């Protein structure tokens, strides 16, 4: 039965069973799940004559033995120009400055840390931020004080960097 080969068909004995089957006439299903063939925390389901593995995320293959190369499967999985590193069962995004999150999908609001000094106004932007400095101050963080005697302008203005 079940594609097994028996040397003596008449008695049904001495059978060589196909994979997944056992018993004198190959009529009995083998419960492969007893031997835990599914790797990396996959769940095993016994079926008639076979079994199947339901792989955990990050693994693939009949027995979930192969790591999924997420970086190759999805070149844009790490966002905003961040580098992707494949690791067993997962992947790692190395975010460039200004972004955070599992996939570097989140813009960091640098203004939360109040980086603009001397009453400068902070403007968050995607991947960066800038400071609109108060009068007489300049620099990326408005940390440089201008000489008041040489500045003919009045009122606040945005100083370039
Ligand atoms: Ca991987
Ligand atoms: Ca930002």
CATH class of the largest domain: Mainly Beta
Low-confidence stretches: none
What average pLDDT do the residues reach?
Answer: 90
Oligomer: single chain
* Total discrete domains: 4
* Shape category: rod-shaped
Q: How many β-strands, per DSSP?
A: 16
Instruction: Round the Cα radius of gyration to an integer and report it.
Output: 33 Å
- For the largest sheet, list the strands in their spatial order: 1-2
Distance between the termini: 81 Å
| Topology pattern, helix = H, strand = E | EEEEEEEEHEEEEEEEE
Work out the helix count. Answer: 1
| CATH-defined architecture of the largest domain | Ribbon
CATH T-level topology of the largest domain: Laminin
CATH superfamily of the largest domain: Laminin
Tell me the strand percentage band. Answer: 25-35%
Which ligands, by name, code or SMILES, are bound? Answer: calcium ion
Main beta-sheet annotation: 2 strands, antiparallel
> What is the helix fraction of residues, given as a range?
under 10%
Structural class assignment: mainly beta
Family: Belongs to the NOTCH family.
Domain EGF-like: 1-27, 29-65, 67-105, 107-143
GO molecular function: calcium ion binding
Keywords: Disulfide bond, EGF-like domain, Glycoprotein, Repeat, Signal
Summarize this structure as a short list of keywords or feature phrases.
161 residues; Laminin; 4 domains; two-stranded antiparallel ribbon; binds calcium ion; signal; disulfide bond; calcium ion binding; Notch/Slit_guidance; NOTCH1_EGF-like
